[in-house]
Amino acid sequence: MSVDLQFIKGIGPKRAAVLLRELEIATWEDALEYFPFRYVDRSKVYKINEIVADMNYIQLVGRFMSREVVGVGTKRRLTAKFTDGTGVIEVVWFNNIDGMASALNGTDEYLLFGKAVVYGGRLSMTHPEMTRTPDMQKLTGTLQPIYNTTEQMKRIGLNSRGMQKIIEAVFNSILPNEIRETLPSWLVEKHNLMRRRDAIRVAHFPHTMAELEQARFRLKFEELFYVQLSLLRNKNINRRSVVGIRLTSAGTHLNEFYKNHLRFEPTGAQKRVVHEIWNDMRSGQQMNRLVQGDVGSGKTLVALMSMLIVSGNGMQACLMAPTEILATQHYNGLQSELCGMGIRMALLTGSTKTKERRNILSGLADGSIQIVVGTHALIEPTVTFHNLALAVIDEQHRFGVQQRAMLWSKNTCPPHILVMTATPIPRTLAMTIYGDLDVSVIDKMPPGRIPVTTEHYFHNNRNRLNAFVRRQLQEGRQAYVVYPLIEESERLDYKNLQQGFEYMCNAFPDYNVCMVHGKLKPAEKDEAMQRFVSGLAQIMVATTVIEVGVNVPNATVMIIESAERFGLSQLHQLRGRVGRGAAQSYCILMTDSALSRDSRRRIETMCLTTDGFEIAEADLRLRGPGDLEGTAQSGLPFKLKISNLARDSEIINFARSCAEEILKIDPTLSHPDSVVMSEQLRRLAANKQDWSQIS
Ligand code: ADP
Ligand code: MG
Questions:
Q1: Looking at ligand 1, which residue's alpha carbon is closest to its atom 24?
Q2: DSSP 8-state secondary structure symbol assigned to residue 259
Q3: What is the mean pLDDT of the chain?
Q4: Do 56 and 70 form a contact (C-beta atoms < 8 A)?
Q5: Any idea what DSSP says for residue 257?
Q6: Residue of 263, 270, 271, 297 with the most ligand 1 atoms within 8 Å of its CB, for mutation
Q7: I want to staple 553 with a disulfide (CB 3.0 to 4.6 A). Which of 404, 580, 588, 605 is the partner?
Q8: pTM of the predicted model, to two decimals?
Q9: How far apart are CA 405 and CA 410, in angstroms?
Q10: b/e sequence 369-386, b meaning 16+ C-beta within 10 Å
Q11: Which atom of ligand 1 is nearest to 580's Cα?
């Protein structure tokens, strides 16, 4: 019954192939679920003198005054001046230049629809949609949907308008009842939701705002409802069916550590969290717990104590970190903290030498190594354990759900899983991203911490900054200088980094400067890090490879170069590298003097607060979910097509309570009333798998 996309009138094999490649649209159902990301109110016509920056798509009515073809080759373009009597805007075409040039005339009145750009006081609009005003009545509806499309798509006429035509073509070639209802009818009625087929049509061809809101609510609800249903059901299944390794006592190691090795008293928050972990591990069920704690809150100690419980019970624990630097640092830290306790530990990363690797693998397999620290190398299939009881994953946001799952298979009875993250996230997001985990929060910082002072400097303040850094170094402190490196391959960034290194060497000839970045060989990276950790080098010039987890309490200065190029949460992570000891620390945000509005707000936020949650919220407000969304999405059972985890928190809460209510009555979704839901879950899961195999 299902029509093939390529046979639909107006699509054809070529467009179908591009849709598949660019947007993963394979079927007509996929096409219908490709929703507009925005709607423009086409009942409103602006005046040219009302145009301001950041306005996006608007409509203008007026006449062309003049036109001119300028430039050659790829720069060749048609520019025309357009006026409505209140001002002039330049309209530009790069395609179909000659056709447009002859079609434009100075007498007709046109309605233009496009993105208005203000640049250096000049107004322009590129490739607007144009309608002669006498034809205006033909426009359908007043809300025009805007679809995201790619360059490849635009090249074959699939711009936003083209996408809408495709959707229209799909609607014309199917019957309304071919659009399946995916929610049980009792649920649709109970909450007075729009039917799915109506909602989809309205989302693409809205007439009124009220109707559109209802439609989008219905579609978002459905999507988020299934996310929650899937997460909660899995959690239930795990609870009931996954038997965990039961630890019977807190073991000798933890006791000994507590008596003889503790360098400082754990905070109340740390003790509480260790207690929660201990309760999980002796419950007989598998632990799946997330420990959330801002940078510097002392997650490492919690991990350490948890691993000692395990090793004290004669079982194995592993600690997995996202980077080699961090793994090495954890390993060295553990070695010095546990020195003399007779615990055999190992470090396994991608650069572990073959012979040593062989030793480690056999030590893990026969159980003689009790604690292993490492990177992704730990989850490789060649790594087998004698009796792995606990896997700790540090800085979870770099690990996907799949990788977490791979750890399960390292023991016949799945090991307890402890995930540690510093990413501060609002509650609704947390319960979605980590919907299948229990959450512990380290909500207090170790005592004696002085909040980091953050200041904004411009490049022309460099001398003042150097004088300040010098005073800190004279007091025996250390400093970081971080350069942005968005793509590890960006040549320009490396040049900046290199120059920054040379600059610091020249400006501080009597101090040692080291440099760390992702392109160094692991041994070189290690050596440079080690020089800084041991205090041999006082200044470290680095890329964001040091963003996560690095711990050098004696460092009190963090200079972030081109700070405007970093996101808020990244800035927060970087700042977290200082302020880890008892001395006052400083974070210097270095920027150009010309800053965009958003950059300025980010910098201001950083100067105003050191609270991770406040920063996360500001980040959401400023930037939309961004990275967080990426992180969040990777933790979801399937990809979101219409909802937004950051903005739709109310719908998430509602969807979650609906899902909870249903699962309370029918935990396995086997009641006849639940058939629609269990089928839809199966379909969504199957869809996801198909794609992972292709990409
Ligand atoms: P994060 O949560 O960012 O991983 P770490 O575990 O690296 O934080 O701890 C940050 C710093 O705080 C380290 O130098 C650590 O030794 C110190 N620290 C941790 N717990 C305490 C505590 N209870 N009292 C004092 N200092 C502590
Ligand atoms: Mg850490």
A1: 446
A2: I
A3: 86
A4: no
A5: I
A6: 297
A7: 580
A8: 0.64
A9: 10
A10: bbbbbbbbbbbeeebebb
A11: 11
Ligand 2 centroid vs 325 CA: distance in angstroms? Answer: 12
pLDDT value at 332 more than 80: yes
Residue range 69-99, pLDDT digits in tens: 988 887 888 999 999 999 999 999 988 888 8
Q: What is the strand order of the sheet 555-560 is part of?
A: 453-458, 586-591, 555-560, 478-482, 539-542, 513-516
* Token representation of residue 577: 């590298």
Determine the average pLDDT of the residues in 225-229: 92
Nearest-CA residue for ligand 1 atom 20 is 298
| Nearest bound ligand to the CA of residue 273 | 1
Closest CA to 592 of 460, 488, 499, 483: 460
Does residue 374 contact residue 403 with C-beta atoms inside 8 Å?
Answer: no
Distance 259 CA to ligand 1 centre (A): 19
**Atom 17 (ligand 1): residue with closest C-alpha?**
298
Residue 235 has phi, psi (to 5 degrees) of -60, -45
Identify the pLDDT of residue 320: 94
State the Cα–Cα distance between residues 201 and 207, nearest whole angstrom.
Answer: 11
Banded model confidence at residue 411, pLDDT cuts 50, 70, 90: confident
At 568, the pLDDT band (50, 70, 90 cuts) reads: confident
Q: Band the pLDDT of 623: cuts 50, 70, 90.
A: low
Can you tell me which atom of ligand 1 is nearest the CA of 448? Answer: 25
What mean pLDDT comes out for the span 680-689?
78
- Reported as a single tens digit per residue, the pLDDT across 366-400 is 999 999 999 989 989 999 999 999 999 987 655 65
Q: Tell me the CA–centroid distance for residue 367 and ligand 2, in Å.
A: 27
Instruction: Read off the pLDDT band of 590 (50, 70, 90).
Output: very high
The runs of H, that is alpha helices, within 456-511 are 462-474, 491-507
Q: How far apart are CA 389 and CA 247, in angstroms?
A: 9
Helix (H) or strand (E) holding 91: strand 88-93
Q: Would you state the structure tokens that stand for residue 144, as one six-digit string?
A: 């025009």
Quick one: which ligand is closest to 299's CA? 1
**Is the confidence at residue 407, as pLDDT, over 50?**
yes
3-state SS track over 602-615: HHHHHHHCCCHHHH
Nearest ligand 1 atom to the CA of 270 is 23
pLDDT score for 215: 97
**Which residue has a Cα nearest atom 19 of ligand 1?**
298
pLDDT-derived band at 426 (thresholds 50, 70, 90) equals: low
Q: Are 327 and 374 in contact (CB under 8 A)?
A: yes
Confidence at residue 692, expressed as pLDDT on a 0 to 100 scale? 32
What atom of ligand 1 comes closest to residue 303's alpha carbon? Answer: 6
The protein residue whose alpha carbon is closest to atom 23 in ligand 1 is 266
pLDDT, tens digit (0-9, with 9 covering 90-100), for 475-486: 999 999 999 875
Ligand 1 atom, smallest distance to 551 CA: 7
Ligand 1 pocket list (CB less than 6 A):
264, 266-267, 270, 293, 295-301, 422, 446, 549, 551, 553, 580
551, 554, 569, 575, best to mutate for ligand 1 pocket (most atoms within 8 Å of CB): 551
- Other Cβ atoms less than 10 A from the Cβ of 474: the count is 10
* CA of 302 relative to ligand 1 center, distance in Å: 9
Confirm if 393 and 419 have CB atoms less than 8 A apart: yes
Ligand 1 mutation target, pool 419, 547, 580, most atoms within 8 A of CB = 580
Q: What angle do CA 517, 536, 534 make, to 5 degrees?
A: 80
Point out the ligand nearest to the CA of residue 424. Answer: 1
Whose CA is closest to atom 10 on ligand 1?
Answer: 296
Residue 442 CA: which ligand is closest? 1
C-alpha to C-alpha distances, 480 to 483, 602, 692, nearest whole angstrom? 10, 21, 40
Residue 619 has pLDDT above 80, yes or no: no
